[in-house]
């Protein structure tokens, strides 16, 4: 009797699989759109309601930046939790205990639009580099200004500000690519991250991000969602021994060597995770 009922249920499930997959697709499409709407609306509300209140609380400029970073951290944690709970994404983290240290430079690859949000959601106080154009975006302006993020408008000023932030005990997140990766294309790292690391004598920790199936890349619109919910994996590597690079002279050679090291490191990591299909 039980076996008969089980076989019947299996036949019903199989016959309705196309409809179930279609419903799942449209639900994830709705969930993705809703997530983006929530992200934008949340950023705007932080700008007009939350940050003005924080700005009137007494404190130094640095303490106000730390407050802003905390607010962004918790907001991004809620956003990632929302995407996970409504079935848009899953995630895993390996080595989180190696992060959240003063004066730490976190270098990461950049496979998807969501990875910076995910990183900040796991690091309680961190600065990052943002495109100069985002400073005029009403949905991003509040978090950018109040969390002390650094504009890439002037490369020399950008590097100096990043070095100062690290030397004062702050944490930085930098994508050496400067933009999102192009799937199937080799990495092309810019030298900004390497230059900052060498000048600041910072703790440098590599973080490998992988996203499967690929989604929200530079070439994809938000509504071009994959056939199933995407899985974001964050793997924190060991600190990179910097003595062999910082001891090189002149500095330009040290920067070039370290940039090559980073590019080769992340190329190996990507090949490893692609080989294992994760």
Automatic annotation (TrEMBL):
GO terms for molecular function: 1-acylglycerol-3-phosphate O-acyltransferase activity. InterPro entries: Plipid/glycerol_acylTrfase. Pfam families: Acyltransferase. The keyword Methyltransferase does not apply. It comes from the Bacteria. The keyword Zinc does not apply. Pathway: Lipid metabolism. GO terms for biological process: phosphatidic acid biosynthetic process. The chain crosses the membrane at residues 34-59. This is Phospholipid/glycerol acyltransferase.
């Amino acid at each position: 009797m039980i076996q008969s009922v089980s076989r019947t249920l299996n036949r019903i499930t199989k016959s309705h699989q196309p409809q179930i997959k279609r419903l799942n697709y449209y639900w994830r499409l709705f969930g993705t759109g809703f997530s983006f709407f929530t992200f934008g609306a949340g950023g705007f509300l932080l700008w007009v309601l939350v940050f003005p209140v924080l700005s009137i609380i007494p404190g130094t400029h640095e303490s106000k930046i730390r407050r802003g970073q905390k607010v962004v951290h918790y907001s991004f944690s809620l956003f990632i939790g929302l995407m996970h709970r409504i079935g848009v994404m899953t995630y895993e983290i390996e080595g989180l205990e190696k992060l959240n240290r003063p004066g730490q430079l976190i270098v990461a690859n950049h496979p998807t639009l969501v990875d910076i949000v995910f990183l900040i959601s796991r690091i309680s106080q961190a600065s990052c580099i943002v495109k100069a154009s985002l400073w005029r975006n009403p949905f991003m302006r509040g978090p950018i200004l109040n969390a002390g993020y650094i504009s890439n408008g002037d490369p020399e000023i950008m590097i100096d500000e990043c070095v100062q932030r690290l030397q004062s005990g702050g944490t930085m997140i930098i994508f050496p690519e400067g933009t999102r990766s192009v799937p199937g294309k080799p990495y092309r790292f810019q030298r900004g991250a390497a230059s900052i690391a060498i000048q600041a004598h910072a703790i440098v920790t590599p973080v490998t991000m992988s996203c499967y199936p690929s989604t929200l890349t530079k070439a994809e619109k938000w509504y071009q969602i994959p056939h199933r919910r995407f899985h974001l994996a964050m793997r924190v590597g060991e600190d990179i021994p910097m003595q062999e690079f910082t001891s090189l002279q002149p500095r330009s050679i040290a920067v070039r060597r370290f940039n090559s090291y980073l590019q080769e490191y992340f190329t190996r990591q990507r090949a490893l995770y692609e080989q294992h299909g994760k």
